[in-house]
């Protein structure tokens, strides 16, 4: 069951110049049985592999402790005890911000030494009161804890000090970009585009921070995570004809009465909808590509594509996590999936004999398998609500 609110999480990172790995770690996971989502951003001491190990350990431990509802100070002490000691500075250290979302309830934010998070409501930066907790064992470490009754269109933005300290020491930003500069930028972006996705906003923030650095070369790891609370954006994807032709009308009725966006993947599938709903389908000339079959245009449908090849290419894009800056069908389908929250696949089970030819490329998988792979990555990597119905 989908909650009345959906939380889109968008992450973006830029590595410190000269490093092949980020010293910050972002880890997010749903707890379906509790209708709950926990996200952690941790900044490890220093940069490179050692910092990444520190941050990754901290992020995953923090998730486990918060998910198990362990007392906060005690769990923080365990994390500090477990972290390796830096041989240079002789301290074990990683900062963290934990966001614990209980859908249709409170969101709790626990911070330790990261820059303060930014909370946006009604398009404006809104202050939130917090309380402090200290550990007798680690007296120099203070936890800041706050709670928010989240509602639609709220946003929570968290980031490492690579954002707030961007440009530090330069003539224009002697003290860095700071939280104030980032807050003003975030508010401006949201005012320009009130429905900007979490992914796009996170990327805009890290790119803006990078632009403050001398020569636009990051002097530190730059990481940002945005949580966007909104009413679920629904998407229906139809692919493949029903097993029995006498169910074609029922198949098409899903499109006619669906409350959300709709995509059709497959020539035979689009022919059924075109025939049953008396809708015209034409080639989209703007979508021609050397590798991806062209998309089509149909009244009332947000996207019409070829079937297996496009779905396979879409899966590869989702796996890589970067949408190509192209207008071909796979890029458009990937973006539609990422920008949606509650996704339903209606999959016809009639076998297309053309896809059983062993001489065809190995990645030309049968429809059901590729859809299952897409569903899995949407759930695990993009934390979407997804279900499949076979017909």
Describe the structure.
This protein folds into two domains: 6-230, PPM-type phosphatase domain (Phosphatase 2c, domain 1, 4-Layer Sandwich); 234-390, no CATH class. The protein is 31% helix and 27% strand. It contains ten helices and 18 strands. The protein has helices spanning 48-67, 72-82, 161-164, 178-192, 198-212, 248-257, 267-276, 308-320, 329-338, 367-380; strands at residues 6-14, 24-31, 36-44, 94-102, 106-112, 118-121, 124-125, 131-134, 142-149, 155-159, 222-230, 234-239, 261-265, 281-283, 296-298, 303-305, 342-347, 385-390. A hairpin with a 2-residue loop joins strand 6 and strand 7 (124-125). The longest helix is centred in the N-terminal third of the chain and has 20 residues, at 48-67. Residues 360-364 have low confidence and may be disordered.
Features:
10 helices, alpha+beta, 2 domains, elongated, Phosphatase 2c, domain 1, 18 strands, five-stranded antiparallel sheet, single chain, six-stranded antiparallel sheet, 391 residues
List the helices and strands and how they pair.
Elements: E1 6-14, E2 24-31, E3 36-44, H1 48-67, H2 72-82, E4 94-102, E5 106-112, E6 118-121, E7 124-125, E8 131-134, E9 142-149, E10 155-159, H3 161-164, H4 178-192, H5 198-212, E11 222-230, E12 234-239, H6 248-257, E13 261-265, H7 267-276, E14 281-283, E15 296-298, E16 303-305, H8 308-320, H9 329-338, E17 342-347, H10 367-380, E18 385-390
């Amino acid at each position: 069951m989908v909650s009345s609110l959906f939380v889109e999480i968008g992450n973006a990172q830029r590595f410190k110049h000269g490093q092949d790995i980020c010293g910050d770690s972002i880890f997010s996971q749903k707890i379906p049985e509790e209708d709950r989502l926990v996200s952690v951003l941790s900044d490890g001491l220093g940069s490179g592999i050692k910092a990444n190990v520190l941050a990754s350990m901290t992020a995953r431990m923090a998730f486990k402790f918060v998910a198990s509802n362990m007392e906060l100070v005690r769990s923080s002490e365990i994390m500090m005890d477990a972290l390796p000691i830096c041989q240079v500075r002789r301290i074990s250290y990683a900062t963290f911000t934990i966001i614990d979302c209980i859908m249709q309830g409170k969101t709790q934010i626990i911070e330790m030494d990261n820059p303060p998070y930014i909370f946006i409501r009604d398009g404006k930066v809104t202050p939130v009161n917090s309380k402090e907790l200290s550990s007798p064992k680690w007296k120099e470490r203070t936890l800041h804890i706050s709670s928010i009754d989240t509602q639609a269109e709220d946003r929570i933005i968290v980031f490492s000090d690579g954002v707030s300290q961007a440009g530090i020491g330069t003539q224009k930003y002697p003290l860095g970009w700071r939280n104030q500069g980032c807050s003003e930028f975030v508010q401006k972006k949201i005012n320009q585009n009130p429905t900007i996705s979490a992914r796009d906003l996170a990327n805009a923030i890290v790119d803006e921070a990078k632009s403050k650095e001398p020569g636009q070369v990051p002097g530190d790891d730059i990481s940002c995570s945005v949580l966007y609370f909104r009413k679920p954006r629904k998407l229906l994807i139809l692919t493949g004809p029903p097993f029995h032709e006498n169910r074609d009308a029922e198949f098409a009725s899903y499109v006619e009465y669906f409350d959300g966006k709709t995509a059709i993947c497959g020539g035979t599938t689009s022919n059924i909808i075109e025939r049953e709903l008396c809708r015209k389908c034409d080639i989209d000339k703007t979508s021609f590509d050397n590798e991806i079959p062209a998309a089509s245009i149909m009244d009332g449908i947000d996207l019409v594509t070829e079937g297996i090849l496009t779905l396979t290419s879409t899966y590869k894009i989702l796996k890589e996590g970067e949408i190509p800056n192209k207008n071909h069908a796979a890029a458009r389908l990937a973006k539609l999936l990422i920008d949606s929250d509650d996704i339903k696949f209606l999959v016809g089970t009639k076998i297309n004999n053309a896809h059983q030819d062993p001489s065809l490329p190995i990645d030309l998988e049968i429809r059901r398998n590729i859809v299952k792979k897409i569903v899995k990555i949407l759930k695990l990597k993009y934390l979407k609500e997804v279900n499949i119905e076979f017909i």
